[in-house]
Amino acid sequence: MAPLTSSTRELFSEAVRAVLETWPVLQIAVDNGFGGAFSQQKAEWMVGAIQQHFMDNDDLQQDEVEDFISELMNNEFDTVVDDGSLTQVAQKVCEMFQQCQQDRLKEVREQINQMIQKKSAGRAKVTPAADDDDDESEDEEAMECDGPSVNGAAVQEQHLPPQATSREEVDDGWTVVRKKK
């Protein structure tokens, strides 16, 4: 296949942006700051990184694209995508790249417009899961921290002055500190 012209490359970049902006996993990561203070900029940077990956590598396979996007999500957003959507995103990006290579630009523009309409119809919202969902409770248990935290940041425990506490020994060697009433 012939390399993309600059206008076709620009259209492919728009296509990648549309795919990423309608991908709920990335949008949740951005909305919740999984990538830190610059989450939005990282998402925008990903568009160029994916587009450049296609320009730098001939005959990319879908699984290679999937691995690349997975690596970006892990490195930039500390997010491991295991909901099956990564395969769909990689497939869509590969499909649109092939359409750009085949000069089927009208189809690409139509797909971009459809994705933009889908995006404007509503974005994914994060809502707390019901307590009776076993999978969610397992995830919550796996995410428990060793110490106290506020908004994910570790907090040092404050110790009460000695006169306000009493100590008692417990069988397992731990000392329980209780506040006096």
UniProtKB/TrEMBL annotation:
Would you kindly state one Gene Ontology biological process term found in this protein's UniProt entry?
A: rRNA processing
What InterPro entries does the record tag this protein with?
A: Pre-rRNA_process_TSR2 (IPR019398)
> One of this protein's Pfam families, by short name?
WGG
Which parts of the sequence are annotated with region: Disordered?
A: 116-181
Q: Does the keyword DNA-binding apply?
A: no
Q: Where is the composition biased (Acidic residues)?
A: 130-144
Keywords for the protein's UniProt record, in alphabetical order: rRNA processing
Q: Which family does it belong to?
A: Belongs to the TSR2 family.
Q: What does this protein do?
A: May be involved in 20S pre-rRNA processing.
Kindly provide the name given to this protein in its UniProt entry.
Pre-rRNA-processing protein TSR2 homolog
